[in-house]
Amino acid sequence: MKPPSLSKHELHEELKAEAIAEFLGEEEEFHRIIHEETSHSYKQFLIFFVTAVILGLFASFAIFSPVNAVIEGQLRSSTLNHNIVMFGDYSLYFSRSVADTLPSLYNQNQISNGVESAYCLIGESTGNKAYEITGILYPKIYSQTRTQVNFAPCPPETVVMLHTHPYKSCLASDVDLQTLKQSQVNNKDLLMIVMCESMRFTVYS
After folding, report:
1. Do 67 and 54 share a structural domain?
2. Suppose 109 and one of 22, 96, 117, 199 were both cysteines; which one would form an S-S bond, judging by CB atoms 3.0 to 4.6 Å apart?
3. Local structure of 194: helix, strand or coil
4. Beta bridge partners of 193
């Protein structure tokens, strides 16, 4: 049996419907492609953004950590004025000869030679956290680098154990604090000074 023949109008409508369906299919495919490309671009942007933030955080840590340490060191340290260093409740009175010698030693070793150095300051504790510094002893130095010095223990008459740090690096390291703690076993009133400029000190008790 032959299928019923279509009139010209019906044939026209069928072709029109097929064309519309094909167009709608192409449009749907177009939107799908655009959506996939947009989604891919968004994912790429998101990956790039997250990577940039992470790298920025690492860079900030690398750049600003030393800066923060310098700022903290400047805030915690004190300068030598009129042969006196005032640090919190502590008062350190230096004889003129000691006050004149220490800056020269710092400039010679830390600035000119580029190595840390250590000194044992003698004098007496006069009470109320006041110290009079009258002399400098030079302990045996075993090794020196720009950021470390290894030296023999200071003698019992030492009231302040002093060592230098690179310029504006005014904070004691964990090793420094451990050395002070060990030294205070036999000398409970011993102080430690970190000298980080020719006239700047940080005091640790």
Report:
1. yes
2. 117
3. strand
4. 162, 203
Pair 116, 40 in one domain: no
- Domain count within the chain: 2
Task: Print burial letters for 4-33: b (CB count within 10 Å at least 16), e (below 16).
Answer: eeeeeeeeeeeeeeeeeeeeeeeeeeeeee
Q: What is the pLDDT of residues 98-142, one digit of tens each?
A: 999 999 999 998 888 889 999 999 999 998 899 999 999 999 999
The whole domain housing 110 covers: 79-204
pTM equals: 0.65
Using the 3D structure, point to which of 76, 94, 115 is the last residue of a domain.
76
The reply to whether 117 and 84 lie within a common domain is yes
Closest Cα to residue 139, out of 124, 154, 129?
A: 154
Task: Give the separation between CA 84 and CA 91, rounded to whole angstroms.
Answer: 7
Secondary structure class of 114 (helix, strand, coil): coil
Q: What distances in angstroms separate CA 117 from CA 25, 51, 70, 101, 139, one per listed residue?
A: 82, 44, 20, 14, 10
94 & 64 share domain: no
